[in-house]
Amino acid sequence: MIDVVSLIPDGIVRHLAVLVVVVPLMLSPICAAIPSWRVSWAVVPGGIGVSLLFAIALVQQSMSGEALVYALGGWAPPLGISFVIDRLNAPFILLISFIGFLATIFALPTIMKDIVEEKRSLFFAAYLMCVGGLLGMTVTGDAFNLFVFLEISSISTYVMVALGATRDRRALPAAFNYLIMGSIGATFYVIGVGFLYAATGTLNMADLARLLPEVMDSKTVHAGFAFIVVGLALKAAIFPLHQWLPNAYAYSPNFVTVFLSATATKAAFYALVRISFTVFSPELDFQHVIFTWVLAPLGAIAAIVCSFQAVFQTDIRRMLAYSSVAQVGYMVLGLSLVTAAGLSAALFHLINHALMKGALFMAVGGVALSLGSTKLADMAGVARRAPWTMTALGISALSLVGVPLTAGFLSKVALFQAALLKDWWWVVIVLAISSVLAVLYVGRILEAAFFKTPGPVQAKVTEAPLALLIPLWILAIANIYFGLDASFITGLTDGAASVAFSGGQP
User: Fold this and answer.
1) Sequence-ordered list of residues with C-beta below 8 angstroms from that of 266, at least 6 positions apart, any chain
2) Residue 189 backbone phi and psi in degrees, to 5
3) Where are the alpha helices (DSSP H) in 447-465?
């Protein structure tokens, strides 16, 4: 691999931890102020491309195993806010910036259809702010600052979802519901942080990890952790706090659905891992109860119930939305094992899920450009009209099911193995049942697209434009490549798990 760090001037390398977040945030108001939406769009891939370059450099720096701490303004924590780069958050920084960059390429043809011209610059500004907020969530070493970035990403997401009302008026109530549920989640999180501050007098995660053992028997600390878990569970769409997600995915602009499905819930899941494993310790009795008797059953229920719901959906985007909740259930089960193997498998599946769902929603969006519908009944025979688009969808769908030689297969096997190592055989049964259900709803999509006879409605379907096919096939090929050789991803996830189980704080 090319040493990206050596290509960046030393003066910039010293500030990479903050620049990866600041670049998209600073470009956001510039995009909003640019009169021409085409010029505004041109700024977006450039800005996120720079963040992606910086993310790759940060991943390479984190490989040494030593955490990098950046004190904002030169104020050392706990007085100041610090950004921390380690092997736990490096995979998420890379994932968000990578998906964000691909999504900007995908954006141009879809935004022209979904967003009215006078609001496109505002849309791109909101998108840059969302990317910056998600990246900020991953790098911050301050519990309250995490809340700030969480809200930055959430508020910009509400705007992007609402702007889809041009295509579908149902986007407005979907955005409002997302706003209410997201605000409740954020409130729970910040109340939990307040409890921790009351018990320790600090908001810095490293200091919290150092001071909490002294007050761990306090009911205040227990309540704080419970509030934080509920708040982040809602943001991560963990069952049954997922009610905002199906409508948000189904009625948003196609571009928004692609980006949200691959990044938003993943960043919230990271925050849950960071708080649970590096600020607290899963070995504690009250945390053990939450993981074993609350999160694990909820993950199992989600994997089966939401897969079952997906089978009966008539709209492909809603079908894939319920599938996403089920897949989050897989990750929760891996997390609930409270083992290095379980956490690594959960993160492995998280990354693979971002790759497969990003591709699936891109393909559906590509067909919707010419078809004007995402109804399953309208997909009859579209593979004959758009073979490249639907072949990529087929590859990603098989990865979602877990067919051998795809990335989804390897991460499911990793989850199986982690569960068996802990003698949680029932997890294997749950995942097997969910996978069978995935065969059913994925089979409905493939049957309609590849085996049904197209009618007059499908005559207007054309191949997706090149700007959409390029990122789509990058993700589709990634699902195959990492199904053959996943050493790069497993190296990242194993490193993340090792940090989590060593406490993770510098």
Assistant:
1) 92, 95, 96, 350, 353, 354
2) -65, -50
3) none
- Consecutive H or E run containing 52: helix 37-62
Rounded distance between C-alpha atoms, residue 115 and residue 127, angstroms? 13
Contact 246, 321 (CB under 8 A): yes
Question: Pick from 4, 110, 124: which is nearest to 52 by CA?
Answer: 4
Closest CA to 483 of 412, 421, 432, 387: 412
What contacts 388, CB < 8 A, 6 or more positions away? 463, 464, 469, 473
Q: Tens digit of pLDDT for each residue in 239-255?
A: 888 888 888 888 888 88
Contacts of 374 (CB under 8 A, 6+ apart): 250, 315, 316, 317, 364, 367, 368
**Beta carbons of 241 and 298 less than 8 angstroms apart:** no
Residues 51 and 40: their CA atoms lie apart, in Å, by: 17
Q: Distance between terminal CA atoms of the chain?
A: 27
Q: Averaged over 319-323, what is the pLDDT?
A: 93
Residue 168 burial class via C-beta count within 10 angstroms: exposed 0-12, middle 13-18, buried 19 and up: middle
- Residue recorded with tokens 């028997």: 217
CA pair distance 212, 229, nearest whole angstrom: 17
Residues paired with residue 315 on neighbouring β-strands, in sequence order? 375
What are the φ/ψ torsions at residue 30 (nearest 5 degrees)?
-65, -45
Write down the residue that tokens 């736990």 correspond to: 88
Cβ atoms < 10 Å from Cβ of 46: 12
pLDDT in tens, 60-71: 888 877 778 888
Q: CA 420 to CA 398: how far, in whole Å?
A: 24
From the list 429, 401, 407, the residue with the least C-alpha distance to 300 is 429
Contact 348, 410 (CB under 8 A): yes
Which residues are registered as beta bridge partners of 82? 71
C-alpha distances in angstroms, 392 versus 66, 89, 210, 348, 415? Answer: 39, 29, 48, 21, 25
- The H or E element containing residue 339 is none
Q: Is the pLDDT of residue 137 over 70?
A: yes
Q: What percent of the chain shows pLDDT beyond 90?
A: 50
Q: Is the pLDDT of residue 498 over 50?
A: yes
Phi and psi angles of residue 9, each rounded to the nearest 5 degrees, phi first: -55, 145
Nearest residue to 492 (alpha-carbon basis) of 114, 187, 154, 56: 56
* Rounded Cα–Cα distance for residues 157 and 163 (Å): 10
